[in-house]
């Protein structure tokens, strides 16, 4: 299970994510947390090793590579912490 964050950050996504799911674009590597830092406060589709695939709205990346953000669960956004090493790719 994805860890729940300890601190609530008040930067809620403005709307639901797009209805279409993109194709994989970014191959997985150790630089994914750094690359996602360039995508803060925007909808990103992620494919993970253990948690499936989903829309995410990242709001921070820790120095240790933990991505904090919101995950779309088909009806609403939920705040999560996602280890960057679990992400296979993102778009």
Which key phrases capture this entry?
single chain, 91 residues, mainly beta, SH3 type barrels, five-stranded antiparallel β-sheet
Describe the structure.
The model has no long low-confidence stretch (mean pLDDT 85). This protein has a domain at 32-90: SH3 type barrels, CATH 2.30.30.100. The radius of gyration is 12 Å and the shape is globular. Strand 2 (53-61) and strand 3 form a beta hairpin. Strands 4-3-2-1-5 form a five-stranded antiparallel sheet. With 91 residues, it is mainly beta. The chain has one helix at 32-36; strands at residues 44-48, 53-61, 66-72, 77-83, 87-90. The protein has one helix and five strands, in the order αβββββ. The relative contact order is 0.30.
In short:
This protein has 91 residues and is mainly beta. Helix content is 5%, strand content 35%. The longest helix has 5 residues, at 32-36.
SSE topology sketch:
Layout: H1 32-36, E1 44-48, E2 53-61, E3 66-72, E4 77-83, E5 87-90
Would you identify the CATH architecture of the domain at 32-90? Answer: Roll
Indicate the proportion of strand residues: 35-45%
Main sheet specs = 5 strands, antiparallel
How is the quaternary structure best described? single chain
User: Helicity range of the residues?
Assistant: under 10%
Question: Treating each run of at least 4 consecutive H or I residues as one helix, how many helices?
Answer: 1
Count of individual beta strands: 5
């Amino acid at each position: 299970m994805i860890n729940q964050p300890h601190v609530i950050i008040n930067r809620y996504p403005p709307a639901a994510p797009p209805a279409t799911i993109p194709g994989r674009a970014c191959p997985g590597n150790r630089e994914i947390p750094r690359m996602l830092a360039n995508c803060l406060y925007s909808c990103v589709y992620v494919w993970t090793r253990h948690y499936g695939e989903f829309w995410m709205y990242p709001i921070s990346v820790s120095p240790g590579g933990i991505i904090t953000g919101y995950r779309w669960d088909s009806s609403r956004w939920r705040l999560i912490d996602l280890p960057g090493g679990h992400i296979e790719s993102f778009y």
